[in-house]
Specification:
Length: 323
Amino acid sequence: MFDILSIIPGKKKQTSSGWTSFNALCCSHRGHTSDRRGRGGIKFDGQTNWVMHCFNCNYSCSFTLGRTINSKTRQFLTWCGVDNEQIQRWSLESLQHKDILDFIIKRKREEIKFKTKKLPDGDLLDKNNLQHKFFVDYLQKRKVNLDKYEFYVNPNNKNRTQYGIIVPYTYKNKIVGNTTRFIDNKIPKFINDQQSGYVFNIDNQNNDWTVCILVEGIFDAISIDGVATMHDDISNEQASVLAQLNKKIIFVPDQDKTGLKVTDRALELGYHVSLPEWGNGVKDVNDAVVKYGKLSTLLSILEHATMSKIKIELRKKQIAKGI
């Protein structure tokens, strides 16, 4: 769908009350003096729904994903310079989200449950255990915070599992699955025990955070404190789990052919998409964290987050040329 803040011309300012203020366009169109004091405001309800109110002339309108764009919102978009054909396309596109959103809302009202499971045999990773140094070095090379995340290893095994790092999956602080990441440069790299609908690292999302970074891979999520789908799609069930967070979702795909395909699905779900310009050799979030650091990577993700299909398609074409 469309990014309303990128459509409104002029400077915008975030207020402590949750509004984004701007010079209201409606005043001059309604016979009032042009606003030069930032009396217009946009406030988001969730990720894509918003209300607009002018604190000068009292004009207001709103947008809700899954519904058509009403006459007042059409009028506001026209004042922003959007033509009627584009508004009609957005209105029809919004309706296409209805079935998906109805499903997510229904699941959101239900209690989401996952079966508890046991982890494979292994010992908690210990930075001071010389037998664990092989695993510690690997994780530190990938800029993983060993004090925040727990891993299990079994270096004394006689089979391939001696080279595996066991990553627990938790939901409401209970073990509901795991993945083993093998670091012996053989195939497969991962063996997963994942229940349908599960989103990795969901338990570590702070209630005070307004944004949730959604990625594909486990180590991408760990390195940025985000969440991961762990495959190249976003299922309706996973969208329901994410909806429980009540946060703005920014999807950061791997910058390869498979990852770029998922951007349409993210937009369909009302998520923002971020495709930062990280340079050669950086194809995912973890690569970026290793090269630039966590803070710089996070800032670049936030800076490039958008819901504009045009911007996303242009960036995808740039990335595709380098693949």
